Structure formats: C-alpha cells, structure tokens
Amino acid sequence: MAPLPHNNTAIYYLDYTVDAREHTLEVRFDGAVSPAAFGASIGGLFVDNLANLDLLTVLGVRHQVQGSNVSNPVTSGIEGNTYGSGVAGADNVPKYINFIGRSSGGRRVRMMIFGYKGAISTWRLTTAENAGVSAGVARMNAASGLYLAIDAVEPLWYPYANVGFNAYWQRKARA
Q: For residue 12, what are the β-bridge partners?
C-alpha cells in the first residue's frame, strides 16, 4: 500500500503534560468538526479513562487544515483541564494506553495516551474487562468525522487497548 502524505486530512493536535513530560496527541478529522466538538469528545474520552490515567493537564489545542504543514492554536474549551489522578514516579513515565483501529481502506490508526497508571499483565485491556476502554472505544466508533485514519475514512476501533512502555521515554527515564 502506497504511503499517504501526513497532511492528507485535517488534524487536531492536543498538547498535554503528564508525569512532568509534555506530549502531543494527534486526531485526524474531516475538517467539519468544530474545535468545541473536538474538545468535548476528547475530554469525554479522558473522563471515560480517569481510572486508567495519571494526572494529565491539557496545555492547548492546535488545528491543521488538510494539505497544510502549519498548525495554529484554537480554543476548544478544554485548555487547562485536568484528567486522571496521582503523579507517578520515573518508573511510569514511559507507560501508555494505545487504542487501535483500521479503516475499510486498510489503513491502521492508533491513538496513544501517555500516563497509563494500571498494571501491565497481559499488555492488553479488553472492553469486557475495563470500563474506561469500553466507553472510549464506543465513543470513538460512534464519532462522526472524528478519529479518522490517514485515508480520511472512519476506522473500526478494536475492542481493546494495548498498554506498554514507550522505548523513547524509557531511555529518557534511564538518563
């Protein structure tokens, strides 16, 4: 399958901090979803997963139109909001929860959120065993024009979320 350009869709970037580290979450959309609608949906996803997340603070939201390589700040209504609880030590810095899906065009999509604070036993949380994952997957599957794959098609989000350690942040924690 031929690669598509990164700017094939419009993108919202959500900048946040968790465990004293800054991260950016990227969400593709059809260009018609307002910043307020995006803020309500992604804020709801964080609320769904309060029990799974360390304290996370939203720094800001940026918007990039389809075909552009420039993003600009927008007001979504969740800037400054906090989600989750507790502050983990250096051991939890590389931990993440990762939602995965696939579009009907065959393009894989994932959304990784740093700050996962649960146990890592099977490396996967299913919708049957974790209420936050169940609500989050249902929210993303029900969203219209939001959480798209790079081919601008709404994916089917799988009934689980992977959990693990990010190698980059693991090396940074060792330093």
A: 27, 63
Instruction: For residue 32, tell me if it sits in a domain.
Output: yes
Task: Name the band, by pLDDT with cuts 50, 70 and 90, for residue 1.
Answer: confident
Whether residue 3 lies inside any domain: the answer is no
d(CA 157, CA 142): 10
CB 44, CB 3: distance < 8 Å: no
- The 10s digit of each residue's pLDDT in 83-112 is 999 877 777 889 999 999 999 999 999 999
Q: Is residue 2 part of a domain?
A: no
The total of structural domains in the chain comes to 1
Its domain, for residue 48, covers: 8-174
What are the tokens at 122? 């099977």
Please count the helices (runs of H) and the strands (runs of E) in the chain: 3, 10
Q: Are 114 and 21 in contact (CB under 8 A)?
A: yes
Two tokens, residue 157: 């989000």
At 88, list the tokens.
Answer: 């983990």
Residue 146 covered by a domain: yes
In what helix (H) or strand (E) does residue 171 lie, and over which residues does it extend? helix 167-174
How many Å apart are CA 59 and CA 82, to the nearest integer? 10
